[in-house]
Specification:
Elements (H helix, E strand, L loop, with lengths): L7 H20 L20 H12 L5 H16 L5 H17 L2 H26 L5 H81 L3 H29 L7 H4 L6 H10 L3 E5 L8 H21 L4 E9 L2 E9 L13 H12 L3 E7 L2 E9 H6 L1
Parallel strand pairs: 1-2
Antiparallel strand pairs: 2-3, 3-5, 4-5
Helix pairs in contact: 1-2, 1-4, 2-3, 2-4, 3-4, 4-5, 4-6, 5-6, 6-7, 6-10, 6-11, 9-10, 10-11
Amino acid sequence: MALSRPHRFDVYIAAGGLLGGLLLVAIGLATRPSSDPITLFDGPWPVLLPLVVMSGCELLRRSTPRAALLTATVAVCADVVTQGNLATVLMFTDVMYAAVLYGPLASARRIQWITGLLTVAGTLVPFAVWREPEALLIGVVVGVVAYGPAATGWIVRDHRDAAEAARLRAEQTALLAEMDRAQAVTAERARMARELHDMVANHLSAIAIHSTAALSIDEPATSREALSVIRENSVAGLAEMRRLIGILRDAGGDTEPAVAPTLDSLAALVEGARANGLDVCLDAGDHGKVPAPVELAAYRIVQESLTNALKHACPGRVTVGLARRDGVLDVRVTSPYGHRDGPRAPGSGAGLTGMRERAALLGGTFRAGPQGALWAVHATLPLSEGESA
């Protein structure tokens, strides 16, 4: 596997260390005299090999920190048996620091333990053997050269990892906030679509049906009656649209009741359906006090069911029933079901979806489909869920 190109900063360190070491050799400045017992190789030239190897390790301090540290350890041990070069020792401390900072986490922990044990051993063993206070200086040198850089690298690494974790948490928080915002926008759009559909579709369906009747029947009285119904529904639909737009623009609180009808308004809703030609029977029963979200959902489900009956049902009676039982509000709407040439007015297919969504938002259930000769809509709306909502 090809080695990656050294970092520019590592090249500067290696070049600076090498040039500094060569300068020390040129002026004859060594760390030990030639008469020192541990100096096995005399003269200025033997120190060059550990110096060159150590500068090469500096080039690898970031890309392969473990291999660089092992090689640097051999080089600094070789430097010990020569007269020594201060630049070699200084570069070794930097390689030790880089091995902890850039190496794998497990390797960084092991280096901490190993250098710590070597420092303790370098302090206690020479003192126990020679019984001289000066022997303690060996441990001090080992601590400064090995454990000190390793501990510094660990501290810097810990701060770097903490900063990276904080950055990742900030990015995750921003991502979650953006997801919440997108979900809120989507939910609000869906709510607006349901309200707009439920408030206006009934009026527009009646307009479409009666305008078709007025165009197909050449009777002045029938046409006049149809146009009267068309006018009433168009005016009512326009008023509903203005109220909804006013609420969306925060026009004022006086428009809120029109967008949040109650179950007491079902009688007026049924009367409007009868005026549009439906034979509707309402049995609201004694439902008692119902939470506002449940009232709105029940009203809109009945309203949409009557609109669908106006567009799709066969001639016959439409029944609307509400009952409170076992902590839920039970809503049922049935209409005659059979084969027709086609709907009396076009539909978007969003009505059933909107009713199902309203029931699901309250934790309730919704079913719609044929039952024999009837089309039945059945929704159960939990009253406790409505109160919490």
